[in-house]
Amino acid sequence: MTRGDKSAYTDKQKRQAEHIEQSERKEGRSKKDAERIAWATVNKHDGGGKRSGSGRAHHASHHR
Fold first, then answer.
1. What is the pTM of this model?
2. Residue 24 domain-assigned?
3. Are 11 and 3 in contact (CB under 8 A)?
4. Number of domains in the chain
5. Basic and acidic residues composition bias: which ranges (predicted)?
């Protein structure tokens, strides 16, 4: 996947990014910044791209 290519994302992730982008635009962010924030947020929550399971693994040792 090349940088900027969104084909590996699920439809749900694409919808989430669009919703976040619209919210950021309402807050006055530029189109470019809103899109960057939206995809960074989707990646933070899901780890980016198509995934099996429910996102990143959480290990008890990381929660102290």
1. 0.70
2. yes
3. no
4. 1
5. 1-36
